[in-house]
Amino acid sequence: MKVTIIGTGYVGLVTGACLAELGNDVFCLDVDPRKIEILNSGGVPIHEPGLQEIIARNREAGRLQFSTDIPASVAHGEVQFIAVGTPPDEDGSADLQYVVAAARNIGRYATDFKVVVDKSTVPVGTADRVSAAITEELKARKLDVEFSVVSNPEFLKEGAAVEDFMRPDRIVLGSDEDDAGLRAKATMKRLYAPFNRNHERTLYMDVHSAEFTKYAANAMLATRISFMNELANLADRVGADIEQVRQGIGSDPRIGYHFLYAGCGYGGSCFPKDVQALVRTASDYGLPLRILNAVEEVNDHQKEVLIGKVVARLGEDLSDRTFALWGLAFKPNTDDMREAPSRRVIAELIARGARVKVYDPVAMDEARRVIALDFADRPDAHARITFCATQNDTLAGADALVIVTEWKAFRSPNFERVKTELKLPLIFDGRNLYEPEAMRELGIEYHAIGRALHVTV
Ligand SMILES: NC(=O)c1ccc[n+]([C@@H]2O[C@H](COP(=O)([O-])OP(=O)(O)OC[C@H]3O[C@@H](n4cnc5c(N)ncnc54)[C@H](O)[C@@H]3O)[C@@H](O)[C@H]2O)c1
């Protein structure tokens, strides 16, 4: 099938590459010429395991092309996926300007039937706005081209995006029941047939419910994390170990083990903005979402918990201190730095006069870019942040180690080396990677989240 993907970011690029891998003829459009240039010269602008190989294979086979040519992109696909960004607006609502701009382009150039697929995460009612924008452009051209907008939110996880896309737990598809809607639904059914061979994974529903489902899913996951983070802080006070508590409750099948890890807060491009957007939608309808307001507030506070532990141990003035910091990406296996807790931790350390030596297995380039922006008006800060080539390089001359992202490479480091290279045998672990008992045996003072029971002082 001929498919166009509008927006070649984390979601668009993975969707385009995976649909090409299944034999479709895919045209990926982006308005960012830099991205398209990288892709056309064989590079991949993001880090996503397995993606590079799929892109190379399908470009070679002539099934995957990248372009900034808008008229050609509209002409190409009967199916037009909108996978552009929906960042938070100033009031927390989803900024739909990119989605609407993409829709207008379709209306400006379409000459035959189009299935317009909202894959971006968008608030309930957005498909109606997309539809209105396309209709307006078609009217200006005095054309009556048939189209239908369907909602097909994406549930992939960065870091496992290819695997998630290729083996989805479920595909949510919201469509209308009129003739164009039924035609669109049949087209999508054909496109997604390869995913449903073993058993039907597609959940068909109305458009509003599909749009809502994505927010509900992310809101639930964010809630579980904030819930555990809040309990972890209490565990620190009452002298309980949140890791043992996690296993104690996760073993209940009604609860399950997923998304119950306490840490130094969630980040990324989805949870923070999607929770805010849902809260905003609700308040537009005069219905405050009290739980989700708290989820956001708890998360914001949680990003400060690790620095609170540093200050409690070493004092407010950190001007004669240097910290080794492991993990910059908002989670492992990605280079995405959007809303990454590391940025807050670095900012708080720098604000107290510290020096920081940082390392991440894949996010170094992206980290350099965003940290330069974070400290754009503080040139003095740049000299106090060192980007190191390896995790071990961060240790020499540092007082303590701070861990912010749970990359596999950090799970079993050479602790003897960590201990001898650090000035103090001191680890602040924002991801609870190690066993407190093992740290005690190694003679390392270990501060984690919700495990204060075990601190060796
Ligand atoms: N990143 C994730 O893990 C994830 C998961 C599920 C859903 N989503 C949702 O998917 C959407 C996209 O997220 P992302 O992380 O891929 O964003 P991204 O910022 O990585 O990519 C968006 C791309 O769209 C391009 N773009 C903007 N306007 C355009 C236009 N008019 N025409 C063509 N290209 C245009 C941008 O240049 C950019 O390359 C968001 O709504 C997000 O919430 C993201």
From TrEMBL:
Reaction(s) catalysed by this chain's protein: UDP-alpha-D-glucose + 2 NAD(+) + H2O = UDP-alpha-D-glucuronate + 2 NADH + 3 H(+)
Every UDP-glucose/GDP-mannose dehydrogenase C-terminal domain range: 324-436
Chain sites annotated for binding substrate: 155-158, 214, 259-263, 267, 331
Assigned keywords, A-Z: NAD, Oxidoreductase
Alphabetized Pfam families for the sequence: UDPG_MGDP_dh (PF00984), UDPG_MGDP_dh_C (PF03720), UDPG_MGDP_dh_N (PF03721)
Binding site for NAD(+): 30, 35, 86, 121, 158, 273, 338
InterPro entries registered for this protein in UniProt: 6-PGluconate_DH-like_C_sf, NAD(P)-bd_dom_sf, UDP-Glc/GDP-Man, UDP-Glc/GDP-Man_DH_C, UDP-Glc/GDP-Man_DH_C_sf, UDP-Glc/GDP-Man_DH_dimer, UDP-Glc/GDP-Man_DH_N, UDPglc_DH_bac
Active site: 270 (nucleophile)
Keyword RNA-binding on entry: no
Gene Ontology MF term list: NAD binding; UDP-glucose 6-dehydrogenase activity
Pathway: Nucleotide-sugar biosynthesis; UDP-alpha-D-glucuronate biosynthesis; UDP-alpha-D-glucuronate from UDP-alpha-D-glucose: step 1/1
BP GO annotations: polysaccharide biosynthetic process; UDP-glucuronate biosynthetic process
EC number(s) per entry: 1.1.1.22
Similarity remark: Belongs to the UDP-glucose/GDP-mannose dehydrogenase family.
Protein name according to UniProt: UDP-glucose 6-dehydrogenase
The gene coding this protein: rkpK
